[in-house]
Amino acid sequence: MNLYSKLKTHRTREITFPMVRIYTLKDLSFMLVHIPKVLNSEQLALVRTKLDHAGAAWVDGRVTAGFQGAPVKNNQQVEELSPIAHELGDLVLALIERNPRFISACLPKAVYPPMFNRYSEGMNFGNHVDGSIRIVPGSGRRMRTDISVTLFLTDPSDYDGGELQIEDSFGMHSVKLDAGDMIVYPASSLHRVTPITRGTRVACFFWVPSMIRDEGQRTLLFEMDNAIQILNQTGADEAARSTLVGNYHNLVRMWAEA
């Protein structure tokens, strides 16, 4: 079932709340969620080929940086309104709207149009917190950034450095995933991309305003949803499962900004 419907005037997507989700991985703490194999090998090869031949569509990454980010940002990104950004962004949107783990972790109200960046040797992005509000290009629509998302497009063996380092109250988490894998983390966190010392790191990134604005409430719902899926897979008592599912949806009803 398609969970999104396109808006007529721009490329953000509105969300219909999903009724069924299936999981194969256990939950990760602190809403730092790894989503594997968002892109398969054929899709990954297509995206990389088009980005490698994007030419003049690659611009200085500081064009979209805010006051805090510009002094510490040193990378390139595909111009947001370019045809290649639209084409590949729509491909990513079509994949994540069918990804049950993404939906459960984010409970998205909309999705900011995916962007693409590139770090070559010597490039990095220093400590920063993502801006709280983004303006969708070409629409003027303001979008709150509750959740940050990075989709890795380069095999980790092809570059050194380039780790996404995310800090929270429990310390620093260093992330360098397989090509095609995605990490979801709070946009409110202090994070950085370490300097590239060999090769090139290419990624897709975007933000999500969630129907559940509060991170603690999102975490509770994500863990509850994972527990429901495990109970479903193990054939636990049907009446108890139905009660738990009802409580899940009632909490969403209580907290959601639909």
Structure description:
This protein is of the alpha+beta class and 258 residues long. It folds into 2 domains: 193 residues, Jelly Rolls (Sandwich); 41 residues, Irregular (DNA Excision Repair, Uvrb, Chain A), CATH 4.10.860. The protein has 5 helices and 18 strands. A 7-stranded antiparallel sheet has the order 3-15-11-18-7-6-4, covered by helices on one side. The chain has a 5-stranded antiparallel sheet with strand order 5-8-16-13-14, with no helix packed on it. Strands 1-2 form a two-stranded antiparallel sheet. A hairpin with a 2-residue loop joins strand 13 and strand 14. Helix 4 runs antiparallel to helix 5. The radius of gyration is 18 Å and the shape is globular. The chain starts with a strand and ends with a helix.
Keywords:
alpha+beta; 2 domains; 5 helices; single chain; seven-stranded antiparallel β-sheet
Percent in strands: 25-35%
The ordered string of helix (H) and strand (E) elements is: EEEHEEEHHEEEEEEEEEEEEHH
In the CATH scheme, what's the topology name of the largest domain? Answer: Jelly Rolls
Integer average pLDDT: 89
State the CATH superfamily name of the largest domain: q2cbj1_9rhob like domain
CATH architecture of the largest domain: Sandwich
Total domains, how many?
A: 2
CA-based shape: globular
CATH class of the largest domain: Mainly Beta
Numbering strands along the chain, what is their spatial order in the largest sheet?
A: 3-15-11-18-7-6-4
Q: Tell me the helix content.
A: 25-40%
Low-confidence runs of at least 5 consecutive residues: 1-12, 14-29
Oligomer: single chain
Instruction: Supply the number of helical segments.
Output: 5
How would you classify the helix and strand content by structural class? alpha+beta
Number of strands: 18
> Biggest β-sheet: count, sense, barrel?
7 strands, antiparallel
Measured between the Cα atoms of the first and last residue, the distance is 19 Å
